[in-house]
Amino acid sequence: MQVIVVLPAYNESSGIASLIQNIQNALSEAHLAHRVLVVDDGSTDESPRILTGLTRSVSKLQVVRHEVNQGLGAAIRDGLHIAAEAAEDDDIIVTMDADETHAPALILRMVASLREGYDVVIASRYQPGSRVVGLPAWRELLSTGASTIFRAVFPIRGVRDYTCGYRGYRASILKGAIAQYGASFVDQEGFACMVDILLKIRGSGAVFGEVPMVLRYDRKHGASKMHVGKTIVSTLKLLVRRRLGY
């Protein structure tokens, strides 16, 4: 069994090297075989140069580059497809943000939960023991409201945090979903893709769970790349389409 960590990255030059090192440290100390897959989504800063240098010194690092920025949906799509193609059924595929707001050590708790029988494990802001540090209050309110709507419209047993990108998947579950949906498995733009992935896996009989997360938004480098208004509109449209069966 190995852990494949997928990092969608756009202009993360200030922290990408330390994040990859911290991922490696956490997984190596736990004696977990692993590799890191970075999808550089058309970065215009020093990220390409830094990542190229890291591939020469880090044997477990793979970098896939989009020549132009295509958005989170495309980066997640390519990362999951590449990881699933390379993975064995009992491997674990983890997605996480590349801005250092997600602690790599939490991967170990996800792996433990997946080994205990879960198929998808989400790092949740809504479990006892979770904390959110540095996120504006209005963003926290929006996130809580979104969670309430998702649970009412599309309840998934074991899931409260539908939008967090920090997740662990049993590789066999992703392989099955990709086989079922093909290129349309991840076909939503932006942050709505994270909701849609759950909705598509939901019908497979997968067992979902969550682990509490400390979201360190105060460690984020630079401004958020999420366009809040656009994300709200696209996610609500997605919920309506899925509710109507499209």
Question: What would you say this structure looks like, in words?
Answer:
It is globular, with a radius of gyration of 17 Å. α3 (72-86) packs across α6 and α7 (192-202) packs parallel to α8. It has 246 residues and is an alpha/beta fold. It has helices at residues 16-29, 47-57, 72-86, 106-116, 137-153, 171-181, 192-202, 228-243; strands spanning 2-9, 33-41, 61-66, 92-95, 120-124, 131-133, 167-170, 208-212, 214-216. The model has no long low-confidence stretch (mean pLDDT 89). The chain has eight helices and nine strands. The termini are far apart. The strands form two sheets. The chain has a seven-stranded mixed sheet with strand order 3-2-1-4-7-5-8, with helices on both faces. Strands 6-9 form a two-stranded parallel sheet. It has a single domain (2-243), classed as Spore Coat Polysaccharide Biosynthesis Protein SpsA, Chain A.
Count of the domains: 1
Q: How many helix segments?
A: 8
- Helix percent reads 40-55%
Which structural class do the helices and strands define? alpha/beta
* Spatial gap, N to C terminus: 36 Å
How is the CATH topology named? Spore Coat Polysaccharide Biosynthesis Protein SpsA, Chain A
The CATH architecture category equals Alpha-Beta Complex
Largest sheet: 7 strands, mixed
3D shape = globular
Strand content: 15-25%
> Which class in CATH terms?
Alpha Beta
Uncertain stretches: none
The mean pLDDT is: 89
CATH H-level superfamily title? Spore Coat Polysaccharide Biosynthesis Protein SpsA, Chain A
- Radius of gyration, in Å, reads 17 Å
